[in-house]
Amino acid sequence: VSINATRSRINEEYREIKRKLLKNAFGLLSSTIERANIIMVTSARPSEGKTFTAVNLALSIAAEQDKTVLLVDADVLKPNVLRTLNAKAESGLMEYLIGEVDDISEVLYHTNIDKLKVIPAGRSHHLSTELLASKKMEETIREFSSRYADRIVIIDSPPMLGINESAVLAGFAGQAVMVVEEGKSKLNDIQKAVARLNPEMAIGFVVNKSTNSNSDDTGYYGYYYGSEQD
Question: Which tens digits make up the pLDDT trace of 81-113?
C-alpha cells in the first residue's frame, strides 16, 4: 500500500478491508465488541503473509483523516515488521516487558507517516509466552487502546498453530484478521486456528495470492468477513 497513491488495485483492496474493521471499531457495532479497536493479524501457519497484511492495513488506516495507528510486532520468534518497513530499532517490546526499558515510550518509534507509530518485537526471550501473558502486557495494550479515542492498535501476532503466544494475544484483541494463502492453507488448519481465537471476537479472512486477481501487483485479493457472537 502506498499512502499517497489513490487508485492502485492493492490500495482499493485494503480500503475495503479496513472499512469493515473501522465500522466494527467505531460504528454501531462497537458497543457489542469488547476492545474492538485492537486488531490482531495472524495466520494458521508461518509464511502465509500476515506481516505484510498487518503493515498494509496499518498504512491504509493511517491514511484516514481522523484515525491514528499503533502497529505492535508481537511475533517475537520471527519478527518481520521492521524489515517490511525497511526500518531499524535498538529495543522493542521484549526489552520493555523484561524491565530493561523503563518506559514503553522508549520503544515506541515514529515513522515517516505522522499517524503511524510502531513498537518492534525486540529480541527473542525464553519466557516470551509468560511475558506476553503478563499483567504488564495487558495493561500496556489496554492503555494504548483507550488513551486516544481515534486509535487503532494492530498486533502482528505469531501463527495460531504450534505457538502458544498467539492464543495469549487473542485474549487482548476484539477483532482478528486471519490471513489465508490460496492454494497453500489447509481448511483443517484454518478451522483449528479459528478455534483457538476468542469466540467473542469479530473474525475476518484475507485471501492472499488469489488466482482470481487480474492484477500483476503482489498483494492480497479478496476479503471475506464474518462476525459471530456465541
Answer: 999 999 999 899 999 999 999 999 999 999 999
pTM: 0.88
> Taking 80 as the threshold, does the pLDDT of residue 222 lie above it?
no
DSSP 8-state assignment for residue 151: E
3-state secondary structure of 33: coil
Q: Which domain holds residue 135?
A: 9-227
Residue 108 lies in a domain: yes
pLDDT class of 212 with cuts at 50, 70, 90: low
CA dihedral 63, 18, 157, 169 (to 10 degrees): 110
Residue 142 near residue 174, CB atoms below 8 Å:
no
Establish if 2 belongs to a structural domain: no
Bridge-based pairing state of the strands 116-119 and 68-73: parallel
* Residue for grid cell 482478528: 176
Which triple of cell numbers denotes residue 202? 469479530
All cell numbers assigned to 155: 498486533
User: What is the C-alpha separation between 216 and 28, in angstroms, rounded?
Assistant: 37
pLDDT at 39 over 90: yes
The helix or strand, by DSSP H or E, that contains position 138, with its residue range, turns out to be helix 135-147
Domain with residue 181: its CATH number is 3.40.50.300
**Minimal CA–CA distance to 44: which of 194, 230, 203?**
194
By mean pLDDT, which of 7-16, 65-74, 126-135, 171-180 is the weakest? 7-16
